[in-house]
Write a structure and sequence with these properties.
This protein has 18 helices and 20 strands. The chain is an alpha+beta fold. A hairpin with a 7-residue loop joins strand 14 and strand 15.
Length: about 525
């Protein structure tokens, strides 16, 4: 046999990436990235603008990406397994035969994938939370407008005709697995964290009328969803058994790739948004403010507590795009990071709130927005940029403090994903704000590698996630320690951040502004219906 390989597919917000891994040596042999042809949809195909807060995707883009990646990486190769991770929660309506509703109803916005950052369903989440129910116990008494239940409620209420034609309401990651194998095999990761599935009680039965009939029982992570079907093999030239694993949430997939398979380990995946995952072998009640907890949905044998920031890298990207310093976005980032690195902590006496995309923890409120305090006529763009970086790190500290206050000590902190590698200044500020040493895994394509490890577990290539982490995960780590003196300065600035975040009048004003914008949007001439 010429060689045995694994493939990991990482479906992000703007593109999908695949890695090819040698199953014997653990080396990454190749990688390939495909941008989605339709990107993040803020307009319909006829050019009509979608309402603010909407973020859709065309499911056909995922298949375009899969076909190209699998062909480039897998043609003529013996592929043992394929693992898939996906942004979450990104649910979509589908017919019983697996066709996306957007294929049969291309002119309806509600027929498309509602991307994780699709924020217009928050008031449906508020209604679900107001009714309450035992299914909310492990989720702090509330679901988010980003999650499946709220988005299903939005579809059912605003487009009842489409809802009637929806046979399956399914996470896009699970849908891709369905397309590759010909079998619907939902993942416990998505079901538990984004649809509040419980092994004893099943899905919530009264959150959305008719939803339960449009769902199906999930399968544990690291299990097989079937083998790549004949049509895909013919199209891609892949050989070998090619077991396809059930999908996993992208931020969770990274855990085995970076060694996050131990008690007391907190892994921060810093990308467009930020996700914080704390592993515990023993169950402890969900700490107040933390989003949720489930067992066996991230790493088998562990309870995984999840929290996050709705906006992270996209906040910095917004600033760099809006106030560019170069022809390309990368030029602007390079310029701002260089200038910000020359500034002292808190330069410009600025404090910001990191709610540019709403607040995920502890408020679960997508109607909240950013805030910048301390501006004057001497304020520079670089000072604002650094203040935004500091605000993101203050948000991270608030998450860490919630874990520790809830009896989940952070014995080891690992920071990974794109920003961990590309923005060392941000990681240094985070270490200074937390007053903790941070370990940054030195591994390319960590999330895609994590997906590949899920495939390896499902295909029996490795005995389990710990074995997969040792064979295919990061081999070395960069250690980032707090700088003497910076932690004390940031402690003072953090107290200001907390005061702003906890001031009710600040949140009330943000809610009022959101209502004003919504009213103005309804009155805008020419805005078409998306139902």
């Amino acid at each position: 046999m010429a060689g045995r390989y694994l493939i990991g597919l990482d479906y992000g917000t703007e593109s999908a990436r695949g890695v090819l891994i040698d199953a014997e040596t653990g080396a990454q042999v190749a990688s390939h990235t495909v941008d989605y042809p339709n990107g993040v949809m803020t307009r319909m195909r006829d050019g009509a603008e979608l309402p603010r807060g909407w973020a859709l995707q065309d499911a056909s883009d995922y298949l375009v990406a899969a076909r190209e990646i699998l062909t480039v990486l897998g043609t003529g190769k013996h592929i043992e397994s394929i693992g898939i991770d996906f942004t979450a929660s990104s649910p979509m309506p589908a017919h019983a035969d697996g066709r996306a509703l957007s294929q049969t109803h291309p002119d309806s916005g509600h027929a498309y994938v509602k991307l994780w950052k699709h924020a217009s369903a928050q008031h449906f989440a508020d209604a679900i939370n107001a009714r309450g129910g035992d299914f909310l116990t492990n989720f702090g008494g509330k679901v988010s407008g980003e999650w499946l239940l709220a988005k299903a409620a939005e579809l059912a209420r605003e487009a009842p005709d489409l809802w009637a034609q929806t046979d399956r309401f399914i996470e896009a990651g699970d849908w891709v697995v369905w397309q590759l194998t010909g079998q619907e095999r939902r993942s416990l990761a998505f079901a538990a964290y984004k649809a509040q599935y419980d092994a004893r009680e099943g899905y919530p039965t009264d959150a959305v009328d008719g939803l339960e009939a449009r769902l199906s029982a999930p399968f544990p992570i690291g299990t097989s969803a079937g083998r790549l079907d004949a049509a895909w093999r013919a199209d891609t030239g892949i050989e070998g058994p090619c077991t396809v694993a059930v999908a996993v949430i992208d931020s969770h997939a990274v855990l085995p790739a970076v060694g996050g398979v131990r008690d007391g380990c907190l892994v921060a995946a810093l990308g467009t948004s930020a996700v914080y995952l704390h592993l515990s072998s023993a169950f402890k009640p969900l700490p107040p403010g933390i989003e949720g907890v489930a067992k066996d949905a991230s790493v088998a044998g562990f309870w995984c507590y999840e929290a996050g920031q709705a906006g992270f890298g996209d906040t910095l990207a917004w600033f760099a795009r809006t106030f560019p310093r170069g022809a390309e976005l990368s030029d602007s980032f390079a310029a701002y990071n260089a200038e910000a690195a020359e500034l002292a902590p808190g330069a410009g006496r600025l404090v910001a709130l990191d709610w540019w995309s709403g607040n995920r923890v502890p408020l679960a409120d997508t109607k909240l927005s950013g805030l910048l305090v301390g501006l004057d006529t001497h304020t520079t763009a670089a000072q604002i940029y650094r203040a935004l970086m500091e605000a993101l790190c203050f948000g991270a500290r608030s998450v860490v403090e919630l874990f520790e206050a809830g009896g989940l000590p952070v014995e080891e902190m690992i920071v990974t994903s794109g920003l961990a590698a590309s923005n060392p200044l941000l990681v240094q500020i985070l270490a200074d704000v937390l007053g903790k040493e941070i370990r940054v895994p030195e591994i390319d394509n960590a999330t895609a590698v994590g997906a590949a490890i899920h495939g390896a577990v499902a295909g029996g290539v490795v005995a389990g996630f710990a074995d997969g982490a040792e064979r295919f995960g990061a081999r070395s780590f960069r250690r980032v320690s707090p700088v003497d003196g910076n932690t004390e300065v940031y402690a003072k600035l953090y107290s200001g951040y907390r005061a702003l975040a906890e001031t009710r009048v600040v949140r009330d004003v943000m809610h009022d502004l959101a209502e004003v914008e919504a009213s103005a949007g309804k009155q805008s001439a020419g805005r078409r219906s998306v139902a």
